[in-house]
Amino acid sequence: MTKFHIFVMRAILGAVFAVILTRMFYGRVEIFYVAGLAIILVGLSYFGEYLRNRKNR
Description:
By secondary structure, the chain is mainly α. It contains two helices and no strands. The chain has helices spanning 3-26, 31-56.
């Protein structure tokens, strides 16, 4: 898979989990909260990948 496909999958999964988490803790789905949380989740995904690849070297 290309890096673009991985990004698209992470963005979709980040948005889905952001909707679920926002719905669970806030009670309703606000686009600003979902977008912010999705960006944070995708960023944490890339940060985790960076840490995992750094340990292997």
